[in-house]
Amino acid sequence: MINVLVVDDHELVRTGILRILDDASGIKVVGEANSGEEALELVKKRQPDVILMDVTMPGMGGLEATRKLLGLYPALKIIILSVHDEEPYPSRLLQAGASGYLTKGCAVEEMVDAIRSVCLGERYIGTDIAQRLALSTIAGKSGSPFDKLSQREMQVLLMVTQGQKTQEISDKLCLSPKTVSTYRYRLYDKLAVANDVELTHLAIRHGIIEGPKEVK
Q1: Are 17 and 101 contained in the same domain?
Q2: What sign does the dihedral 162-129-92-103 (CA atoms) show?
Q3: How confident is the model over 72-90, as pLDDT tens digits?
Q4: Does pTM surpass 0.85?
Q5: Do 135 and 31 have their domain in common?
């Protein structure tokens, strides 16, 4: 039996995944979490074989959660299940040690196949993601200014664009406030922006984060 933990901040998404996996033979959902912090706590208690991990969540996002979880549990398999299909997300998460990457538009059968494949020690990348990665490799770059960022800089970027304060980021990443500030200004310099607002707008334009929803 493959034990799975589902991590996503949207209850509707979690419920949908639970119903899908309930019909899959040999797979059992042993828990669900709505944040990276909750996932860290639940892994100790539920001991899953595989985690289906969202990327963009309040607090600790999927990138930082993946890095921390694999540091604590190297044998754990993490499959990213995200709306983000463009760079730098796939490369960053795979570099962090994720065993697979799927978009939320994938077929039910593909998600089930991915879970079974990573448990066999294979890496599973959705067809659409694999194509983008291949094209990026051929081109030598994806054309995104965010490609030049280190993994830690990307982590700080995601938290800054979520509106998290310096002390909050400091506590979650176990860095001093001074170091967080250094990362922030390094981001400004590398991305040629002047403040958090410009940083957020640039991230939205390149699909790193979602923009505000329009009120209808």
Answers
A1: yes
A2: positive
A3: 999 999 999 988 777 778 8
A4: no
A5: yes
